[in-house]
Amino acid sequence: MKEPSHEAALAAHGFDAFETGLLPVLRQFLLCHETPESQAWQRAYMVAAERWGEAIGLPAAQALMKLLRAVLDCRDGRFTFIDPFDLELRGTVTADEAALLQMLHHMRRDQTPGAREAVAEVTGGKMDPHVIRAGLAFAHRFSAGQAAARPEAPRLRVVA
User: Fold this and answer.
1) Short-list 14, 107, 18, CA closest to 56
2) What is the pLDDT of the chain when averaged over all its residues?
3) Tens of pLDDT along 36-57?
4) pLDDT band with cut points at 50, 70 and 90 for residue 152
5) What whole-number distance in Å separates Cα of residue 138 and Cα of residue 127?
6) 160 occurs within a structural domain
7) Element spanning 34, H or E
C-alpha cells in the first residue's frame, strides 16, 4: 500500500481539478486490486459518478481502470498508494500515484517530452505500448479543459 517516506503534498504537483479528482477513484481501484474481496471498484465508479455525473464520471472511471490495468501488468502488480479511507493522508500522494497523474497531466495537454519522461517513470523505464495506448486513449477522451466542470443533467422535452 503506502510508503510514508515517499509521500508528497498533492497541491505541490500542479494538477488541475479533474486530475486531482481522479486520485480517489484511482485509490479505490488500487484497493480492489490489493484486496479483491473489498469490491472497491464499485466505490470507484460511485465516486466518479458523484464527482462528474454519470455521463462523464463513468467513462472516466472505465478509462482510468483500463490504464491502471496496463500499468499494473507492466509493473507486476506493484504500485504504492495511500488507503482511500485514510483521512489524514488525503492531501498527499505517493511517488507512484504522482507519476501516474503526471503522465496523464502531460498527455492531456499533448506535451510529448513531459509525457515520455512520465511514462518512463510510471513503467520503470520501459516504454510499454499498452500503457501508452491506454494513457493516450484517456487523454484523447478527457483532454485538458474538458470534463473538469460538472455537466448539467440532460433535460427531456416533449415535442409536439
Assistant:
1) 18
2) 87
3) 898 899 999 999 999 999 999 9
4) low
5) 17
6) no
7) helix 17-34
Cα separation of 98 and 38, whole Å?
24
**Residue 67 in domain:** yes
Question: How remote is the C-alpha of 51 from its chain's centroid?
Answer: 13
pLDDT score at 89: 87
Which residues have CB under 8 Å from 58's CB, separation 6+?
Answer: 45, 48, 49
Number of structural domains, the chain? 1
Task: Give the tens place of pLDDT for each residue, 55-96.
Answer: 999 999 999 999 999 999 999 888 999 999 988 888 889 999
Is residue 155 in a domain?
no
What is the domain range of residue 26? 15-141
Rounded Cα distance, 67 and 141, in Å: 13
Angle at 155 between CA 150 and CA 159, to 5 degrees: 160
Helix (H, G, I), strand (E, B) or coil at 92: strand
Separation in Å, CA 49 to CA 3, 10, 42, 52, 56: 29, 22, 11, 6, 7
The residue with cell 507492466 is 74
In a domain, 159, yes or no: no
